[in-house]
């Protein structure tokens, strides 16, 4: 089987490739070749050094999608995008990369299939940003997509394309609406959602973190391990049972910031909690107040997708995967 | 005020222009110029001979949208599309005309506004084809758009673009999801939905019509007069009260084929009804069984959009507008 990961240098891409290296049978069939693409050349994992190709390629430039698809991968995992803040700041770039790049990929697959029969599994990283306020208490699987950002609009449009291309038989697609990933590894960043991870990650290694919102803020989370698991499951599942509604809100954990902090106290003690400094930030508070807080992700759960059920698990996963198992 | 109608040679476009000619004050401000565009040159209504321009132009060809928008219309009514059957039969053409043509129009408006402040009202003809089965008993205003046709996908994508361009302040848009128009004037055509009109229109003039489905088939209707009324209302309404959810399911009438026939009997007698010949057609039955049957179009009604409440009204409107008031 030939697996292609587009956006392989990103956080989920790298973790996904690590997982494939650690568990070579996880996709159900042997990986005979692996193509890792991103705008910067993605790292080549040692376990795959003999069968992997790494490519620096920008999907939104003319001919790139055709070049990628000419190798006819069996599974295409499309994680490449510019993030919400950038898509809002740069209207042209957001539409070019997030919409036109994805559409070029879908079109390249269709054209390849016109040449010779070809029906790859296509997994598309979508987002809960496809939804916009006001929300019901829990967002169900049939709630409409009325995004309030250009990023969410681009993701919602790609979801519609994915469903139509799948229905027409051009590929076998699944759209994966990711929760906010927590604990996001790495350095603190300036994303408005950064603090959800920062207030756990930094105190776990004895560093201070800033909490810009109230503890009663509720949000929707999954661990990086769950995010990888969604794509692995989607790559190997029987898509015959999904039907034409191919875009799925992934399961996650609806939790308060206060619950994050309680879990931190249970696992790392009050000393860790005392490293969280409260610095209310009205700008971040306003942004966050527009985000979804809870979902009833019944369809995805019924289709076998799983995520964490409490923040203790999310923290333990971080400790296992990022801190060598020790706090 | 400069009003532009794109798709002005189509049924709704022509009726809209006739209505503007008959009621020059209907948009609330005097029409100083009128641009009528379509792929074939639209008819020039005598009442507007001095202030109207007619243009044969294909929105999906390079530069056409810029050419249209360079005249900076205040109200742009975008009715141009290829229909459902054609969009399904010709994948490339459907996306080119219905998606890329509309996006080119929206982009041309944005670019014009970058040059010099410009915020036109943009009315986009969408469709209940943005919805796909299975449906709830009544489709509410927050039901998701999971189209099962490429046409519905193209309309749903344009709705997302319209909402985002409006939110970003590039124009002031409203998406108008039209019910099935009945009684559609003109000749019987081969559209799968044609019989809903045919079984009334032909018997009203003493001709035979074919009914390919059961009388218990339910569907969602509005008269051509209502369709024109939706655009007139949307052109002049205060958009400040809509909020960012700019795509509205228009009000309509949920009715059984049997109710159409009962209304025909009341208005034109059993002799007219006896001209309906039952010829069950499994192909048409299957297509029609996938269509929405009923909506709770609360938001549009609250915003002042109105439609018929029974089939007697729909037939009477046809008699007034198409048959000179007499059966």
TrEMBL record, chains A, B:
Pfam families for this protein: Epimerase
Domain NAD-dependent epimerase/dehydratase: 3-211
GO MF annotations in UniProt: oxidoreductase activity
PANTHER family xrefs: ADP-L-GLYCERO-D-MANNO-HEPTOSE-6-EPIMERASE, NUCLEOSIDE-DIPHOSPHATE-SUGAR EPIMERASE
Signal peptide limits: none
Domain of life the protein comes from: Bacteria
Keywords from the UniProt entry: Carbohydrate metabolism, NADP, Plasmid
Database matches in InterPro entries: DenD, Epimerase_deHydtase, NAD(P)-bd_dom_sf
Name of the protein in question: NAD-dependent epimerase/dehydratase domain-containing protein
